[in-house]
């Protein structure tokens, strides 16, 4: 008994015992971190867990951090990006629960409608396969270009481009910063919201509620049944979270559950 008390004291002092009840999650600032901090954290606290949210402004580091065990989970991505990332990086990231859709949109400081696009205009587009596909699908839906059929699409897959549009590929986070320099930029909702853009008002074209790009909580394969991940999943799929998303984001973010 005395040995057990000594061992417990040592664990408490080292922080190892406490860490069993700490869930560390990587997330984009908006809306993911807001949802976690403002709604999920209090729910988890009632269950005896501490939620530690680490904020990231890119899509690569939080997946690598889950893979190497620095994070228990992350919350920022859809299945197409996850699948592409695992293939390219050799990682083993898997989804647990789907939470919301963030409609991809196209924004501009130079034109007020897609009909104003001129011959040779430059369009900023993400260089990751999932977001590039979403952007090209939106341009096809608007009748601006036509691309070959396929799971993923890049500018190289465009077969009809009447306006001879030029595509500038870059990291997803960089498309927002290109707004001053291009005619049109495809920007993820989380980045748009972070600078005060209102997708339902400011986007010239926007994915609708039928978008297949649900954002998931994700963890490393084999960790899905960890009690901490189960607690996180349960806390995030609650009426409180759904209500928060609906009221806070006014259609710019749409619950998927």
TrEMBL record:
Q: Where is this chain primarily localised? A: membrane
Q: Which Gene3D superfamilies match?
A: Periplasmic binding protein-like II (3.40.190.10)
Q: Which GO terms describe its cellular component?
A: membrane
Q: Where in the cell is it found?
A: Membrane
Any one Pfam family here would be: Lipoprotein_9
Top-rank lineage group of the source organism: Bacteria
Keywords recorded for this protein, A-Z: Lipoprotein, Membrane, Palmitate, Signal
- Kindly indicate whether the keyword Membrane belongs to this entry: yes
Q: How does it sit in the membrane?
A: Lipid-anchor
Q: Which family does it belong to?
A: Belongs to the NlpA lipoprotein family.
This protein is called what?
Answer: NLPA lipoprotein
């Amino acid at each position: 008994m005395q040995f057990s008390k000594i061992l417990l004291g040592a664990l408490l002092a080292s922080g190892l015992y406490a860490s069993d009840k700490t869930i560390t999650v990587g997330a984009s600032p908006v809306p993911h971190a807001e949802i976690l901090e403002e709604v999920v954290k209090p729910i988890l606290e009632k269950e005896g867990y501490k939620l530690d949210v680490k904020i990231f402004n890119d899509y690569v580091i939080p997946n690598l951090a889950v893979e190497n065990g620095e994070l228990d989970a992350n919350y920022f991505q859809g299945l197409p990006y996850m699948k592409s990332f695992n293939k390219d990086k050799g990682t083993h990231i898997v989804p647990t629960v789907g939470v919301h859709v963030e409609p991809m949109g196209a924004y501009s400081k130079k034109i007020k409608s897609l009909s104003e696009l001129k011959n040779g205009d430059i369009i900023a587009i993400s260089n990751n396969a999932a977001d590039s596909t979403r952007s090209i699908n939106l341009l096809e839906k608007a009748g601006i270009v036509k691309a070959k059929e396929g799971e993923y699409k890049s500018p190289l897959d465009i077969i009809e481009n009447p306006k001879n549009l030029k595509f500038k590929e870059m990291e997803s986070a960089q498309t927002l910063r290109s707004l001053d320099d291009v005619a049109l930029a495809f920007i993820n909702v989380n980045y748009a919201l972070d600078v005060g853009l209102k997708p339902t008002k400011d986007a010239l074209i926007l994915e609708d509620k039928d978008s297949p790009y649900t954002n998931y909580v994700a963890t490393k394969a084999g960790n899905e049944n960890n009690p901490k991940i189960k607690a996180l999943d349960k806390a995030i799929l609650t009426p409180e979270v759904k209500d928060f998303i609906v009221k806070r984001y006014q259609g710019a973010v749409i619950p998927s559950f």
